[in-house]
Amino acid sequence: MRPTTRIVLFAAVMTTGVTGADAADRAVAVTFDDLPGSPGSLVSNEAKALRETTSKLLATFSQHRVPVVAFVNEGKLFVEGGKAEDVAARTAILKMWLDAGVELGNHTYSHHDLNKTPLDEFEADVIRGETVTRRLLEAKGAHLRYFRHPFLHVGLELEKRRAFEAFLKDRGYTVAPVTIDDDDYVYAAVYADALRRGDQALATRVGNDYVRYMDSVFAFVEDVSQRLTGRQIRQTLLVHASALNADFFGQVAKAFEARGYRFVTLETALQDEAYELPDTYVGNWGISWLHHWELSAGRKRSPSPDPPDWITKAYEALGH
Do residues 242 and 207 lie in contact, with contact meaning Cβ atoms separated by under 8 Å? Predict the structure, then answer.
């Protein structure tokens, strides 16, 4: 795309977006990654514990009327030494999400890194990650339509990024972008470790600071959205299926509501013209699409809020 074309398109998106009374109508689509659950963010990776975590999350979605798209790593259905009944139990957990009205998407089988994996191998892992999820969706009369990049890595070369996007389109996928990226996984690891050690006081402190931190993230993306597009866009949130969110996502949802947000489907969020902004980002960082758009427009990337040092140090002490 020539620079003049990019400027014209960028200006057009800024002037054709939601205006007037609708400008203050904040909306967010909620997405969860790493189903059925990432071991490091769980108190236990046993199927029974996964069911309990999932039940808490689904109850919160119902209470706050949150439509969710959740992304599956089918490799997490299989654990070392697990028997057929364990696979069946983990698959039944995915069905719990579907039965609660959650749409499932593909997050690859193995959570490989597109930046480091040859394209043909990565594409094969995407296809491998469809098997169970597609079957479960089709049993509900639905189909697999969303893909989420592991680590939010889209590639180191634009040619590779575009080739992979063409592959996804050919298989009927829409890329699920993220405008609200955050370090919930950092908090989740520290929280789960505290609970495993029986340190409820630390777990409570971590959970409360997580809610505070997320509110600072909301303020940040609102500021970037306003500066970048002149309005509040329909946001897309990424968080993870974890013990932390099972216990505290309800408070995060309340914080969204207090800021004037309504919860919308991912499909509705992606109808916002902002998602048509030029995006030529490639690089080492897995960053939000707000940052993609900033860099593609020739702007500096706005610095995102970080967890406090005590959280970061506790996370690093776990060997991450």
Answer: no
- Which tokens belong to 184? 């919930």
| Token pair listed for 273 | 């013209």
Q: Quick one: three-class SS letters along the chain?
A: CCHHHHHHHHHHHHHHCCCHHHHHCEEEEEEEEEECCCHHHCCCCCHHHHHHHHHHHHHHHHHHCCCEEEEECHHHHCCCCCCHHHHHHHHHHHHHHHHCCCEEEECCCCCCCCCCCCHHHHHHHHHHCCHHHHHHHHHCCCCCCEECCHHHCCCCCHHHHHHHHHHHHHCCCEECCCCECCCHHHHHHHHHHHHHCCCHHHHHHHHHHHHHHHHHHHHHHHHHHHHHHCCCCCEEEEEECCHHHHHHHHHHHHHHHHCCEEECCHHHHCCCHHHHCCCCCCCCCCCCHHHHHHHHCCCCCCCCCCCCHHHHHHHHHCCC
Q: Quick one: 215 exposed, middle or buried, by C-beta within 10 A (0-12, 13-18, 19+)?
A: middle
Q: Residue 32 — φ and ψ, nearest 5°?
A: -120, 140
32-44 mean pLDDT: 96
* Rg, the chain, Cα only: 19
Burial of 185 (0-12, 13-18, 19+ CB in 10 A): buried
Q: What is the pLDDT of residues 59-75, one digit of tens each?
A: 999 999 999 999 999 99
Lowest mean pLDDT among 15-19, 51-55, 151-155: 15-19
pTM beyond 0.70: the answer is yes
Q: Which of 254, 223, 192 is nearest to 42 (CA)?
A: 192
pLDDT in tens, 129-164: 999 999 999 999 999 999 999 999 999 999 999 999
pLDDT of residue 1: 37
Percent share of the chain, pLDDT over 70: 92
Residue 62 sits at φ, ψ, to 5 deg, of: -65, -45
